[in-house]
């Protein structure tokens, strides 16, 4: 026995179209929840255009994870730490409290920028940075633009940049203590507090 549906084909097609639109691919970080959390992050600053320097950060621009404009890395000068991380990276989570504490202790003496690297879940990256108290600007490198210039094997990685904009040291592993991080800042950037 065969049943015939009384629902017109046009109604079924319209319902499927609405369902497809409602379930479409969401742009990472564009949900109201992620956008609201992104507003809790420190906005990225407008940087003054400067010529690239020898041994400096690469001449690329990365979008801000929170609010604010794209940032051209070659414009940045130190003393500065660029910390490459991802929310899925266990060691990045381990060292996050040390970076948050450094930001508090060395405020006004050392700048920090985070770079969310190869992270497929922008909303989780925003949540991680906010929950860990990483109160400094964060950029997004979802296309591995920093991989070659900084020779990134994977996160975490931290570049130390001097006042002239030169990368003077790259730490290619997790910080294991606050003392280790503080000592490297003093040794590599000549900054104490």
From TrEMBL:
Keywords: Cytochrome c-type biogenesis, Disulfide bond, Isomerase, Redox-active center, Signal, Signal-anchor, Transmembrane. GO terms for biological process: cytochrome complex assembly. Residues 1-28 form the signal peptide. CDD domains: TlpA_like_family (cd02966). It is found in: Cell envelope. Residues 51-190 form the Thioredoxin domain. GO terms for molecular function: antioxidant activity; isomerase activity; oxidoreductase activity. Its main location: other. InterPro entries: AhpC/TSA, Thioredoxin-like_sf, Thioredoxin_CS, Thioredoxin_domain, Thioredoxin_ResA/DsbE_sf. One of its GO terms (cellular component) is cell envelope. This is Thiol-disulfide isomerase/thioredoxin. It comes from Kribbella amoyensis.
